[in-house]
Amino acid sequence: MSELFKLALSSVPKPHAWGKFELADPITHFFLCDFIDMELELPEPSSFCTKLAEIHRNSDSPTGKFGFMVPNCHGKIVQSNEWDSNWASFFTKLLLSFLQLELSINGPWEEYDKAFEKIVATVIPRLLEPLQAEGRVLKPSLVHGDLWEENVAINLATGDLVVFDASVFYAYNEYELGT
Fold first, then answer.
1. Strand positions, DSSP E, the chain
2. Burial of 95 from C-beta contacts in 10 A (0-12 / 13-18 / 19+)
């Protein structure tokens, strides 16, 4: 959230502290930020998309790669964000980490596993590898990472857009469209 706050001051609650409780069972983490009185209402699409594009355009990955400095969470799911210069490779690893969690919770499911293998072996390479082929360059942009209607609101005091509950990392900006 700190990285997102740097780029979108008026649209993100200012983070103040975060960490892990020392005496908590089960393990419990906390995050403290400014309180913003808000209404869970979708913003006007044009201004929302303009703000999102601004964040993507004005962000620069510190390594020039896809990923993030530390692992973060997508909801309760710890997301590995190891730096990778190739978007197809990074996206595949991210997707595989979600699959591993799914398998650990629900066990294998033959049809699902076969479909997933096809996605990793065929669909992702066909869709994503051409984006960086033949000298084409993708700019890693800071993305919210968990953008959906429950993580977007309107600031009741100002009427401005507010985004929160992010799992930010540097990604291909169109990743934002599928979260």
1. 15-20, 29-33, 38-39, 72-74, 77-79, 141-143, 152-155, 161-163, 169-171
2. middle
Hey, which residues does 87 pair with through a beta bridge? Answer: none
Q: What is the pLDDT of residues 63-115, one digit of tens each?
A: 999 999 988 888 778 888 999 999 999 999 999 988 888 888 999 999 999 99
SS (H, E, C) 68-118: CCCCEEECCEEECCCCECCHHHHHHHHHHHHHHHHHHHHCCCHHHHHHHHH
Q: What's this model's pTM, rounded to 2 decimal places?
A: 0.88
* Exposure on the CB side of residue 58, measured as CA atoms within 13 A: 13
The predicted model gives 28-48 an average pLDDT of: 89
